[in-house]
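Write out this protein's structure.
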Amino acid sequence: MYGAGSGRIITAATGILQACHISATAVLALSAPPLAYPTPLSTASLSSETPVPTAAHSSPDKWAQQAFSAFLDVLQATPGFRQREGQMAMAQCVADTFSRADLGDCEDPQRAIAVIQAGTGVGKSAAYASTAIAMALQRKTRVLISTATVALQEQLMQKDLPALAASMEQPFAFALAKGRGRYVCKLKLERLVGSSGAEDDFFEADFPAVALGTASQEALEERRFRLYEHMAATLATGRWDGDRDSLNEAPDAQDWATVAAERHSCTVRHCPRFRDCSYYQARNRLAEAQVIVANHDLVLASLGMKTLPELDNCLLVFDEAHHLPAVALDQFSSAMELASLRWLDRLPKVLQDVSSALQLDLDPDVSTVSSQLKATLNQLARMVLDLVHASTQGQDGTLRFAHGVLPEALGEPVALVLAQATGLAQALDALGTQIKQIAKDDPMQALQCSQQYAKLGPLAPRLGALTSTASLLLEHGEQPLAKWLQCKSESGFLLISAHACPMVPGDLLRQFVWSQARAALLTSASLTSCGSFDYFLQECGLSGNPNVQALEVSSPFDYATQGTLTVVHTMADAKNVQAYTGEVVGYLMQDMARVEHGALVLFTSRAQMRAATDAIPARLLESVLVQGSTSRTRLLAAHMARVEAGLPSIIFGLQSFGEGLDLPGILCETVFITKLPFAPPSDPVDEARAEWLRRRGRDPFNELVIPATGIKLLQWTGRAIRTEEDRAQVICYDKRLNEQAYGRRMLQGLPPYRLLQRK
């Protein structure tokens, strides 16, 4: 439905342009940091390009029994071990699921997928990791664990996996998979500091057209040069491994982008720095690991690229799986920028310089087509600006096309963009192919070929964005795509863009993930909504799949004893935003005055949070920490310091603070929920999907909005009780939670707090 390939649609030729087929921002082939433990298996046997045979003569029942026994052994070896019924049930389900699946080459393979909601405190990572690793070691395969957040990756890499490696009978190696762009390109870095004696303008950055004085420009260039010199020196002395995340201070994004490794700029084995390349050294270490930790973006972006274990030949775990549908939509969406076109002015010169340097043939039409493409994009940008401003009374904003139908006036220029960008992509691809052939035939020219090839790299994702977005904008299928235009002012510049995106994440995951995966676990503390798995299974493309088993594992916490959920009945209706916000802020200020230790206030919008911030009385000002006023790390550190000092501390936060925030004990004794966390109604993809459902006689509010809000509310209320010793309260100021039928549906899916009302 969405075209061939495993990612966003590209109609241009293979080669350089294929590198763009997932996401212009991803730059995603993968690698890993140094391993903490040696591996008992050879690198060759675990190469992502080499199939791992299944131990076909072993019994699935025996595999499951041994894996579960390994989990029990780990529990017994854990200090302070406390048996939890839910954790035992989860480990048994994981063992049974992974034992049933057929891996590797086989006819009519058996698939097995477990969907497990494990409540807070179950210890889900210990349950699945020990069981899956033991199973993988038996079956001589690997475990791929995918997360949605850096925090969980850090927990797995720094705490959970080292502890398992120390306690499990069989040794195993583990590694963190990262995007290629997290590593430095030594060839680029050498050129920028002049160590190879080449011209300085080789890697011309595509900086925004910011008006800088001569002195400011010189200072900027001097700062960058000192940064790159320092990077090169620490690399040369071995004090840095080339990983951006291991630098003492994170570099500016644009500074790093200039020296980052890129798929589009790399000649791989033909590069003279290949043997000591930071990225490929990390990737080699990754191939030695039995357990790989990645994130959802990487897993989806690497489909078909052989940089992670093949999904049909590994044990796949999606932790924080409730994020998977949104990540899928993001990965398969596409956008093209219509206003920033300086790169098109440079394109003919870059191609001409490269072809001349290596005495290669270049299509003589490149310059003409580049000019034509720029003219078409400028024409399209003017049309987009007029359309958006006509729909917003002259203001910047977003214009979505009803039913995914592109206006007739835009059809011709978009088709021209597709044709012209495809032609340039083919020329770029042909030139790149010639360069790699020279490097292969004549190793003496490898350095020059790599340098010239790298000049082409920044052009490939830009052309890929044009071809993929234009293709989607022109596509009309049974299920329409979400298509929209956007104009926004940013730092004094007007950004004009066109966007297209599939609407149903389940279709994408079914087509590109579940068609490949054989053994998979999807787990989180918030997979059910309103007491049912139906919504999550639908969003993930697993509804009606006979290979799926869903299991809800309850938290060991006694919520009815440990906490309360109080619903405050306001006079104002939540739909009357101004009156409702004013009344809620008044109640909130009164309740905040009674906070003795730590508390968290969750808002549904910045405007609502700003209104509350402006209303804080002087006596409470020192107690409140507002999201965005400093970094998340510093804000949480300040909160903990105040509470530990015996002072009250209250965090004001938005959606991102409603999930993954772990503040046990007195660090969070009260969670204030200012409003039910309905998503804003302006998201173009959500709008398009709701429109499509209504056209089919279905109710998007009941099918999508209520279940999605129920999951968020489950996450938000889950911030209160974090351990079996906690005592906390949740106060919700939205009376719809127990007055409306949909609110009562959401209540069914929340932890069983003792329910109170306040009028």
